[in-house]
Amino acid sequence: MTWNIIGKKEKKEPPNTRNARRLCWDSRDEYFKCLDSINVINPLDPKNSKKIQTSCKEQSNQFDQNCATSWIKYFKEKRFVDYKRERMLKEVEEQQELRDSERKS
Amino acid sequence: MNQVIPQTQRMLSRSSSSGFRRSALRTVASMRAIPSSSLLINKRVNIFRNFHTKFTPLYNKKPLSRVPVGGSESTSSSSKFKNSTLEFSSGKAMILFVLVGGTLYYFFEKEKRRIETVKTAEANRGYGKPMIGGDFTLYDENGKEFTEKDLLGKFSIIYFGFSHCPDICPDELDKLGVWLDELRKKYDIILQPIFITCDPARDSSEVLKEYLSDFHEGIIGLTGSYEQVKNCCKKYRVYFSTPPSVKPGQDYLVDHSIFFYLMDPEGQFVEALGQNYDEETGVEKIAGHVKNYIPEEKREALINSDKWYSFLFK
After folding, report:
1. For residue range B169-188, what is the model confidence (pLDDT) as tens digits?
2. DSSP letters of A43-104?
3. CA distance A105 to chain B (A)
4. Which residues of B touch A75 (CB under 8 A)?
5. pLDDT per residue as tens digits for the range B81-129
Protein backbone atom coordinates (compact mmCIF):
# COMPACT_ATOMS: atom_id res chain seq x y z
CA MET A 1 0.00 0.00 0.00
CA THR A 2 2.61 2.49 -1.07
CA TRP A 3 0.20 5.23 -2.06
CA ASN A 4 -0.83 5.63 1.55
CA ILE A 5 2.60 6.85 2.53
CA ILE A 6 3.37 9.26 -0.26
CA GLY A 7 1.62 12.56 0.30
CA LYS A 8 2.39 16.18 0.83
CA LYS A 9 3.59 15.90 4.38
CA GLU A 10 4.09 12.16 4.42
CA LYS A 11 0.44 12.01 5.35
CA LYS A 12 -1.02 8.68 6.22
CA GLU A 13 -4.20 8.17 4.21
CA PRO A 14 -7.15 6.83 6.15
CA PRO A 15 -8.30 3.29 5.35
CA ASN A 16 -11.18 2.85 2.93
CA THR A 17 -13.78 1.43 5.29
CA ARG A 18 -17.30 2.44 6.21
CA ASN A 19 -16.22 3.84 9.57
CA ALA A 20 -13.37 5.81 8.05
CA ARG A 21 -15.70 7.23 5.44
CA ARG A 22 -18.19 8.27 8.08
CA LEU A 23 -15.43 9.94 10.05
CA CYS A 24 -14.29 11.79 6.96
CA TRP A 25 -17.81 12.94 6.05
CA ASP A 26 -18.48 14.09 9.60
CA SER A 27 -15.32 16.17 9.76
CA ARG A 28 -16.14 17.54 6.32
CA ASP A 29 -19.56 18.65 7.57
CA GLU A 30 -17.98 20.29 10.61
CA TYR A 31 -15.48 22.09 8.42
CA PHE A 32 -18.19 23.32 6.02
CA LYS A 33 -20.31 24.48 8.92
CA CYS A 34 -17.41 26.57 10.09
CA LEU A 35 -16.92 27.96 6.58
CA ASP A 36 -20.60 28.89 6.50
CA SER A 37 -20.21 30.84 9.71
CA ILE A 38 -17.40 32.97 8.24
CA ASN A 39 -19.15 33.25 4.85
CA VAL A 40 -16.52 31.40 2.88
CA ILE A 41 -17.94 29.69 -0.16
CA ASN A 42 -14.89 28.63 -2.10
CA PRO A 43 -12.24 27.26 0.28
CA LEU A 44 -9.82 26.77 -2.62
CA ASP A 45 -9.74 30.48 -3.37
CA PRO A 46 -6.37 31.80 -2.05
CA LYS A 47 -8.10 34.98 -0.91
CA ASN A 48 -9.95 32.97 1.69
CA SER A 49 -7.03 30.96 3.03
CA LYS A 50 -6.10 33.51 5.66
CA LYS A 51 -9.64 33.78 6.91
CA ILE A 52 -9.89 30.00 7.18
CA GLN A 53 -6.57 29.74 8.96
CA THR A 54 -7.68 32.15 11.67
CA SER A 55 -11.25 30.94 12.21
CA CYS A 56 -11.47 27.29 11.16
CA LYS A 57 -8.00 25.98 11.75
CA GLU A 58 -9.05 23.12 13.97
CA GLN A 59 -11.84 21.91 11.68
CA SER A 60 -9.57 22.21 8.68
CA ASN A 61 -6.89 20.08 10.33
CA GLN A 62 -9.44 17.48 11.36
CA PHE A 63 -10.79 17.36 7.81
CA ASP A 64 -7.30 16.99 6.35
CA GLN A 65 -6.47 14.23 8.75
CA ASN A 66 -9.63 12.17 8.32
CA CYS A 67 -9.97 12.29 4.57
CA ALA A 68 -7.84 11.15 1.66
CA THR A 69 -6.06 13.94 -0.19
CA SER A 70 -8.03 13.44 -3.38
CA TRP A 71 -11.28 13.51 -1.44
CA ILE A 72 -10.42 16.78 0.26
CA LYS A 73 -9.85 18.45 -3.07
CA TYR A 74 -13.01 16.87 -4.45
CA PHE A 75 -15.20 17.98 -1.55
CA LYS A 76 -13.84 21.52 -1.62
CA GLU A 77 -14.47 21.82 -5.33
CA LYS A 78 -17.88 20.23 -4.94
CA ARG A 79 -18.86 22.78 -2.29
CA PHE A 80 -18.25 25.63 -4.68
CA VAL A 81 -19.88 23.90 -7.67
CA ASP A 82 -22.94 22.96 -5.61
CA TYR A 83 -23.27 26.50 -4.35
CA LYS A 84 -23.07 27.93 -7.86
CA ARG A 85 -25.62 25.45 -9.14
CA GLU A 86 -28.00 26.15 -6.29
CA ARG A 87 -27.76 29.88 -6.89
CA MET A 88 -28.41 29.41 -10.59
CA LEU A 89 -31.47 27.27 -9.92
CA LYS A 90 -32.76 29.87 -7.48
CA GLU A 91 -32.32 32.62 -10.03
CA VAL A 92 -34.17 30.65 -12.68
CA GLU A 93 -36.98 29.99 -10.23
CA GLU A 94 -37.22 33.65 -9.23
CA GLN A 95 -37.33 34.71 -12.84
CA GLN A 96 -40.06 32.20 -13.50
CA GLU A 97 -42.07 33.53 -10.56
CA LEU A 98 -41.59 37.09 -11.73
CA ARG A 99 -42.79 36.19 -15.20
CA ASP A 100 -45.78 34.37 -13.78
CA SER A 101 -46.81 37.33 -11.63
CA GLU A 102 -46.42 39.67 -14.60
CA ARG A 103 -48.64 37.48 -16.69
CA LYS A 104 -51.28 37.44 -13.98
CA SER A 105 -51.37 41.23 -13.59
CA MET B 1 -115.16 38.89 -58.37
CA ASN B 2 -117.00 40.79 -61.01
CA GLN B 3 -114.37 39.80 -63.51
CA VAL B 4 -114.33 36.11 -62.55
CA ILE B 5 -118.06 35.51 -62.81
CA PRO B 6 -118.49 36.61 -66.45
CA GLN B 7 -115.56 34.43 -67.45
CA THR B 8 -116.91 31.29 -65.87
CA GLN B 9 -120.33 32.11 -67.21
CA ARG B 10 -118.82 32.21 -70.69
CA MET B 11 -117.00 28.93 -70.14
CA LEU B 12 -120.01 27.14 -68.83
CA SER B 13 -122.42 28.65 -71.38
CA ARG B 14 -121.73 25.69 -73.62
CA SER B 15 -123.24 23.39 -71.04
CA SER B 16 -126.93 22.86 -71.61
CA SER B 17 -127.97 22.24 -68.06
CA SER B 18 -128.72 25.46 -66.24
CA GLY B 19 -128.85 23.67 -62.87
CA PHE B 20 -125.28 22.44 -63.25
CA ARG B 21 -124.22 25.91 -64.23
CA ARG B 22 -125.72 27.24 -61.08
CA SER B 23 -123.93 24.72 -58.92
CA ALA B 24 -120.62 25.39 -60.68
CA LEU B 25 -121.00 29.04 -60.04
CA ARG B 26 -121.54 28.28 -56.42
CA THR B 27 -118.32 26.28 -56.32
CA VAL B 28 -116.30 29.08 -57.75
CA ALA B 29 -117.81 31.65 -55.48
CA SER B 30 -117.25 29.68 -52.27
CA MET B 31 -115.24 26.53 -51.60
CA ARG B 32 -117.85 25.15 -49.29
CA ALA B 33 -118.83 22.53 -51.81
CA ILE B 34 -115.47 20.71 -51.84
CA PRO B 35 -115.51 19.15 -48.35
CA SER B 36 -118.95 17.72 -48.98
CA SER B 37 -117.87 16.11 -52.25
CA SER B 38 -114.68 14.57 -50.78
CA LEU B 39 -116.75 13.10 -47.99
CA LEU B 40 -118.85 11.49 -50.64
CA ILE B 41 -115.80 9.87 -52.26
CA ASN B 42 -114.61 8.49 -48.91
CA LYS B 43 -117.97 6.93 -48.36
CA ARG B 44 -117.81 5.25 -51.71
CA VAL B 45 -114.33 3.81 -50.99
CA ASN B 46 -115.57 2.44 -47.68
CA ILE B 47 -118.40 0.75 -49.41
CA PHE B 48 -116.00 -0.78 -51.90
CA ARG B 49 -113.75 -2.03 -49.10
CA ASN B 50 -116.60 -3.54 -47.23
CA PHE B 51 -117.66 -5.21 -50.39
CA HIS B 52 -114.15 -6.67 -50.89
CA THR B 53 -113.65 -7.96 -47.32
CA LYS B 54 -117.07 -9.39 -47.32
CA PHE B 55 -116.05 -11.75 -50.08
CA THR B 56 -112.49 -12.74 -48.98
CA PRO B 57 -113.56 -15.57 -46.65
CA LEU B 58 -114.81 -17.30 -49.73
CA TYR B 59 -111.22 -17.88 -50.90
CA ASN B 60 -109.01 -20.42 -49.13
CA LYS B 61 -105.81 -18.47 -49.76
CA LYS B 62 -104.77 -14.98 -50.73
CA PRO B 63 -104.32 -14.70 -54.48
CA LEU B 64 -100.52 -14.23 -54.19
CA SER B 65 -99.86 -16.49 -51.23
CA ARG B 66 -96.50 -18.22 -50.96
CA VAL B 67 -98.10 -21.26 -49.42
CA PRO B 68 -98.06 -24.06 -52.00
CA VAL B 69 -101.31 -25.29 -53.42
CA GLY B 70 -102.85 -27.78 -51.10
CA GLY B 71 -100.88 -26.49 -48.11
CA SER B 72 -102.42 -24.79 -45.17
CA GLU B 73 -101.54 -21.30 -43.99
CA SER B 74 -101.85 -22.19 -40.35
CA THR B 75 -99.15 -24.88 -40.11
CA SER B 76 -96.77 -22.96 -37.83
CA SER B 77 -99.24 -22.24 -35.11
CA SER B 78 -96.49 -22.02 -32.43
CA SER B 79 -94.68 -19.11 -34.14
CA LYS B 80 -94.95 -15.90 -32.20
CA PHE B 81 -93.78 -13.83 -35.11
CA LYS B 82 -96.23 -15.18 -37.63
CA ASN B 83 -98.48 -12.18 -37.69
CA SER B 84 -95.66 -9.65 -37.66
CA THR B 85 -94.95 -8.01 -40.98
CA LEU B 86 -91.17 -8.10 -40.22
CA GLU B 87 -91.58 -11.75 -39.35
CA PHE B 88 -88.30 -13.61 -38.78
CA SER B 89 -85.87 -10.69 -39.08
CA SER B 90 -87.00 -8.88 -35.97
CA GLY B 91 -86.96 -11.62 -33.37
CA LYS B 92 -84.79 -14.63 -33.86
CA ALA B 93 -82.42 -12.78 -36.17
CA MET B 94 -81.90 -10.15 -33.54
CA ILE B 95 -80.80 -12.76 -31.03
CA LEU B 96 -78.57 -14.37 -33.65
CA PHE B 97 -77.06 -11.02 -34.54
CA VAL B 98 -76.22 -10.19 -30.95
CA LEU B 99 -74.76 -13.62 -30.35
CA VAL B 100 -72.57 -13.66 -33.45
CA GLY B 101 -71.57 -10.03 -33.07
CA GLY B 102 -70.69 -10.45 -29.43
CA THR B 103 -68.62 -13.55 -30.07
CA LEU B 104 -66.73 -11.88 -32.88
CA TYR B 105 -66.11 -8.77 -30.81
CA TYR B 106 -64.79 -10.79 -27.89
CA PHE B 107 -62.59 -12.82 -30.18
CA PHE B 108 -61.08 -9.85 -31.99
CA GLU B 109 -60.46 -7.96 -28.78
CA LYS B 110 -58.69 -10.95 -27.30
CA GLU B 111 -56.53 -11.36 -30.37
CA LYS B 112 -55.70 -7.67 -30.43
CA ARG B 113 -54.53 -7.85 -26.84
CA ARG B 114 -52.36 -10.88 -27.57
CA ILE B 115 -50.69 -9.09 -30.47
CA GLU B 116 -50.10 -6.02 -28.33
CA THR B 117 -48.37 -8.11 -25.66
CA VAL B 118 -46.10 -9.65 -28.25
CA LYS B 119 -45.28 -6.26 -29.67
CA THR B 120 -44.38 -4.72 -26.31
CA ALA B 121 -42.31 -7.77 -25.45
CA GLU B 122 -40.51 -7.36 -28.74
CA ALA B 123 -39.99 -3.65 -28.21
CA ASN B 124 -38.45 -4.40 -24.82
CA ARG B 125 -35.97 -6.72 -26.45
CA GLY B 126 -34.12 -3.61 -27.44
CA TYR B 127 -34.26 -3.61 -31.21
CA GLY B 128 -33.50 -0.10 -32.31
CA LYS B 129 -32.27 0.83 -28.87
CA PRO B 130 -28.55 1.42 -28.39
CA MET B 131 -26.96 -1.94 -27.79
CA ILE B 132 -25.76 -2.07 -24.24
CA GLY B 133 -23.88 -5.06 -22.95
CA GLY B 134 -21.91 -7.77 -24.63
CA ASP B 135 -19.19 -10.24 -23.93
CA PHE B 136 -16.54 -9.47 -21.35
CA THR B 137 -14.06 -11.36 -19.21
CA LEU B 138 -13.34 -10.15 -15.71
CA TYR B 139 -12.43 -11.75 -12.38
CA ASP B 140 -14.46 -11.81 -9.19
CA GLU B 141 -13.11 -11.06 -5.72
CA ASN B 142 -11.81 -14.62 -5.40
CA GLY B 143 -9.95 -14.38 -8.71
CA LYS B 144 -12.47 -16.62 -10.48
CA GLU B 145 -13.27 -15.79 -14.09
CA PHE B 146 -16.58 -14.05 -14.64
CA THR B 147 -18.01 -13.56 -18.12
CA GLU B 148 -21.26 -12.46 -19.72
CA LYS B 149 -22.39 -16.11 -19.47
CA ASP B 150 -22.61 -15.71 -15.70
CA LEU B 151 -25.43 -13.24 -16.26
CA LEU B 152 -27.66 -15.93 -17.75
CA GLY B 153 -30.57 -17.46 -15.88
CA LYS B 154 -31.18 -14.60 -13.44
CA PHE B 155 -31.77 -10.89 -13.37
CA SER B 156 -28.61 -8.95 -12.64
CA ILE B 157 -27.98 -5.40 -11.58
CA ILE B 158 -24.61 -3.98 -12.50
CA TYR B 159 -22.94 -0.91 -11.06
CA PHE B 160 -19.70 0.65 -12.27
CA GLY B 161 -17.58 2.48 -9.74
CA PHE B 162 -14.33 2.38 -7.84
CA SER B 163 -13.46 1.76 -4.24
CA HIS B 164 -11.79 5.13 -3.66
CA CYS B 165 -14.97 6.91 -4.65
CA PRO B 166 -15.56 9.69 -2.13
CA ASP B 167 -19.31 9.90 -1.69
CA ILE B 168 -21.47 8.86 -4.63
CA CYS B 169 -20.50 5.19 -4.96
CA PRO B 170 -20.93 4.39 -1.25
CA ASP B 171 -24.33 6.09 -1.28
CA GLU B 172 -25.38 4.28 -4.40
CA LEU B 173 -24.18 0.94 -3.07
CA ASP B 174 -26.11 1.51 0.15
CA LYS B 175 -29.16 2.27 -1.97
CA LEU B 176 -28.57 -0.95 -3.89
CA GLY B 177 -28.56 -2.81 -0.58
CA VAL B 178 -31.97 -1.35 0.28
CA TRP B 179 -33.29 -2.28 -3.17
CA LEU B 180 -32.08 -5.86 -2.85
CA ASP B 181 -33.69 -6.29 0.57
CA GLU B 182 -36.95 -4.66 -0.44
CA LEU B 183 -37.23 -6.65 -3.67
CA ARG B 184 -36.73 -9.87 -1.78
CA LYS B 185 -39.14 -8.96 1.00
CA LYS B 186 -41.88 -7.33 -1.03
CA TYR B 187 -41.83 -9.17 -4.35
CA ASP B 188 -39.68 -12.24 -3.69
CA ILE B 189 -37.31 -11.10 -6.42
CA ILE B 190 -33.65 -12.01 -6.10
CA LEU B 191 -31.17 -10.11 -8.23
CA GLN B 192 -27.52 -10.85 -8.82
CA PRO B 193 -25.73 -7.66 -7.75
CA ILE B 194 -22.46 -6.89 -9.51
CA PHE B 195 -19.94 -4.14 -8.92
CA ILE B 196 -17.45 -3.53 -11.72
CA THR B 197 -14.49 -1.33 -10.97
CA CYS B 198 -13.37 1.45 -13.30
CA ASP B 199 -10.06 1.67 -11.50
CA PRO B 200 -8.33 -1.69 -12.00
CA ALA B 201 -4.95 -0.18 -11.16
CA ARG B 202 -5.90 0.15 -7.50
CA ASP B 203 -8.89 -2.17 -7.18
CA SER B 204 -7.50 -5.66 -7.08
CA SER B 205 -9.72 -8.61 -6.20
CA GLU B 206 -8.58 -8.35 -2.57
CA VAL B 207 -9.30 -4.64 -2.33
CA LEU B 208 -12.79 -5.15 -3.77
CA LYS B 209 -13.49 -8.01 -1.40
CA GLU B 210 -12.65 -5.86 1.57
CA TYR B 211 -14.46 -2.84 0.19
CA LEU B 212 -17.68 -4.70 -0.62
CA SER B 213 -17.78 -6.40 2.77
CA ASP B 214 -19.05 -3.03 4.06
CA PHE B 215 -22.11 -3.27 1.85
CA HIS B 216 -24.94 -5.68 1.14
CA GLU B 217 -24.03 -9.32 1.30
CA GLY B 218 -23.44 -11.05 -2.00
CA ILE B 219 -22.35 -8.17 -4.19
CA ILE B 220 -19.91 -9.58 -6.70
CA GLY B 221 -16.90 -7.34 -7.26
CA LEU B 222 -15.31 -7.62 -10.68
CA THR B 223 -11.94 -6.43 -11.83
CA GLY B 224 -9.35 -7.32 -14.45
CA SER B 225 -6.59 -5.82 -16.49
CA TYR B 226 -6.97 -2.23 -17.67
CA GLU B 227 -7.80 -3.48 -21.18
CA GLN B 228 -10.41 -5.93 -19.92
CA VAL B 229 -12.11 -3.28 -17.81
CA LYS B 230 -11.97 -0.74 -20.61
CA ASN B 231 -13.56 -3.25 -23.00
CA CYS B 232 -16.35 -4.00 -20.56
CA CYS B 233 -17.02 -0.32 -19.90
CA LYS B 234 -17.12 0.36 -23.61
CA LYS B 235 -19.67 -2.40 -24.16
CA TYR B 236 -21.88 -0.94 -21.43
CA ARG B 237 -21.38 2.61 -22.69
CA VAL B 238 -19.79 3.58 -19.40
CA TYR B 239 -17.59 6.60 -19.54
CA PHE B 240 -14.64 6.68 -17.20
CA SER B 241 -11.44 8.64 -17.07
CA THR B 242 -8.36 8.20 -14.97
CA PRO B 243 -6.16 11.27 -14.67
CA PRO B 244 -3.57 11.12 -17.46
CA SER B 245 -0.32 11.37 -15.51
CA VAL B 246 -0.75 9.29 -12.41
CA LYS B 247 2.46 8.41 -10.64
CA PRO B 248 2.44 5.02 -8.96
CA GLY B 249 1.06 5.38 -5.49
CA GLN B 250 -0.54 8.74 -6.13
CA ASP B 251 -4.01 9.34 -4.81
CA TYR B 252 -6.53 10.22 -7.49
CA LEU B 253 -10.20 10.03 -8.35
CA VAL B 254 -11.85 8.37 -11.32
CA ASP B 255 -14.56 10.18 -13.14
CA HIS B 256 -17.28 7.81 -14.28
CA SER B 257 -20.94 7.69 -15.26
CA ILE B 258 -23.34 6.69 -12.51
CA PHE B 259 -25.90 4.12 -13.57
CA PHE B 260 -27.33 0.84 -12.46
CA TYR B 261 -27.81 -1.53 -15.37
CA LEU B 262 -30.65 -4.00 -15.09
CA MET B 263 -29.99 -7.11 -17.17
CA ASP B 264 -32.54 -9.84 -17.87
CA PRO B 265 -31.93 -13.61 -17.56
CA GLU B 266 -30.78 -13.72 -21.17
CA GLY B 267 -28.02 -11.26 -20.38
CA GLN B 268 -29.82 -8.54 -22.31
CA PHE B 269 -29.94 -4.94 -21.21
CA VAL B 270 -33.32 -3.85 -19.82
CA GLU B 271 -32.85 -0.39 -18.37
CA ALA B 272 -30.32 1.97 -16.87
CA LEU B 273 -31.34 3.47 -13.54
CA GLY B 274 -29.74 6.76 -12.71
CA GLN B 275 -29.36 8.63 -9.46
CA ASN B 276 -32.90 9.97 -9.80
CA TYR B 277 -34.29 6.64 -8.55
CA ASP B 278 -34.44 6.65 -4.78
CA GLU B 279 -34.83 3.78 -2.34
CA GLU B 280 -38.53 3.36 -3.13
CA THR B 281 -38.98 4.26 -6.79
CA GLY B 282 -36.05 2.06 -7.79
CA VAL B 283 -37.67 -0.98 -6.19
CA GLU B 284 -40.95 -0.38 -8.02
CA LYS B 285 -39.18 0.18 -11.31
CA ILE B 286 -37.15 -3.02 -11.09
CA ALA B 287 -40.12 -5.06 -9.88
CA GLY B 288 -42.16 -3.79 -12.83
CA HIS B 289 -39.53 -4.92 -15.29
CA VAL B 290 -39.08 -8.31 -13.65
CA LYS B 291 -42.83 -8.96 -13.57
CA ASN B 292 -43.34 -7.97 -17.20
CA TYR B 293 -40.53 -10.14 -18.43
CA ILE B 294 -41.63 -12.89 -20.82
CA PRO B 295 -39.12 -15.77 -21.07
CA GLU B 296 -37.64 -16.48 -24.47
CA GLU B 297 -39.51 -19.72 -25.21
CA LYS B 298 -42.84 -18.18 -24.31
CA ARG B 299 -42.07 -15.12 -26.37
CA GLU B 300 -41.19 -17.15 -29.42
CA ALA B 301 -44.32 -19.24 -29.03
CA LEU B 302 -46.33 -16.02 -29.01
CA ILE B 303 -44.63 -14.69 -32.11
CA ASN B 304 -44.84 -17.93 -34.06
CA SER B 305 -48.47 -18.53 -33.23
CA ASP B 306 -49.66 -16.84 -36.41
CA LYS B 307 -53.20 -17.93 -37.14
CA TRP B 308 -54.98 -18.09 -40.48
CA TYR B 309 -56.89 -14.94 -39.57
CA SER B 310 -53.82 -12.94 -38.61
CA PHE B 311 -54.02 -10.98 -41.86
CA LEU B 312 -56.99 -9.19 -40.30
CA PHE B 313 -54.70 -7.45 -37.82
CA LYS B 314 -52.07 -6.36 -40.29
Report:
1. 899 999 999 999 999 999 99
2. TTSHHHHHHHHHHSHHHHHHHHHHS-HHHHHHHHHHHHHHHHHHHHHHHHHHHHHHHHHHHH
3. 37
4. 166-167
5. 555 555 656 778 889 999 999 999 999 998 887 777 667 666 666 555 5
C-alpha distances in angstroms, B238 versus B10, B12, B227, B234?
115, 114, 14, 6
pLDDT digits (tens, 9 = 90+) for A49-80: 888 888 888 888 888 888 888 888 889 888 89
pLDDT tens sequence across B23-49: 444 444 444 444 444 444 455 545 445
Instruction: Return phi, psi of residue B220, to 5°.
Output: -90, 125
- Which amino acid belongs to residue B193? P
ipTM of predicted assembly, 2 dp? 0.75
Q: Does residue A3 lie in a domain region?
A: no
Chain A nearest CA to B202, separation (Å): 10
| Domain presence at residue A2 | no
Determine whether the interchain pair A70/B163 forms a contact, defined as Cβ–Cβ distance below 8 Å.
no
Pairing type for strands B145-147 and B260-263 reads unpaired
Domains contained in chain B, CATH given: 4-58 (no CATH), 137-293 (3.40.30.10)
Within a domain: residue A4? no
Provide the strand spans (E) within chain B.
137-139, 145-147, 156-161, 192-197, 220-222, 240-241, 255-256, 260-263, 269-273
Predicted TM-score of the model (pTM):
0.63
The length of chain B in residues reads 314
Full domain range(s) for residue A79: 17-104
Q: How many CB atoms lie within 10 A of CB B23?
A: 11
Structural domains counted in chain A? 1
- Indicate whether A30 belongs to any domain: yes
